[in-house]
Amino acid sequence: MAEPNKLVRNERRKLRATWYNNASIAVLVAGFLSPFWTIIYGTTAAAADDFSRTVGFLVCIAAGVFLRFAGRWALGGLEE
User: Fold this and answer.
1) Keywords on this record (predicted)?
2) Which residues fall within 8 angstroms of residue 28, CB to CB, at 6 or more apart?
3) What pLDDT score does 2 carry?
4) Overall pTM surpassing 0.85 (yes/no)
5) Each residue of 6-42: pLDDT tens digit?
6) How far is 77 from 42, CA to CA, in rounded Å?
7) How far is it, in rounded angstroms, from Cα 10 to Cα 18?
8) Quick one: pLDDT at residue 44?
9) pLDDT of residue 47 exceeding 90
10) Up-side HSE of residue 75: CA atoms within 13 Å toward CB?
11) Does the residue 57 lie in any domain?
12) CA distance 41 to 2
């Protein structure tokens, strides 16, 4: 099978970067909305629940930022 040309490799890299970026957005939105959903829909406000909400929020932020930089890293291999 022939090696894909430069244009095909660039398009594959751009698609991979787009996927990472979209996953990043989804994780960030989930991280921002999930604490509000738990408050609005009546979960108990115990200290453990507040702690788990905070940790979940921070994990989602960190994962979103990581995925965003993974997308930028994927674009680093573009060829001219």
Assistant:
1) Membrane, Transmembrane, Transmembrane helix
2) 60, 61, 64
3) 67
4) no
5) 899 899 999 999 999 999 999 999 988 887 777 777 6
6) 48
7) 12
8) 58
9) no
10) 12
11) yes
12) 56
What residue numbers bound the domain in which 52 lies? 32-79
Amino acid, single-letter form, for residue 49: D
Q: Which residues contact 4 (CB under 8 A, 6 or more apart)?
A: 12
Length of the chain (residues): 80
- Under 8 Å between Cβ of 14 and 75: yes
Query: Is 21 among the domain residues?
Result: no
| Domain presence at residue 27 | no
Q: Residues 43, 34: contact at Cβ < 8 Å? A: no
CA distances from 38 to 34, 41, 53, 71 (A): 6, 5, 9, 30
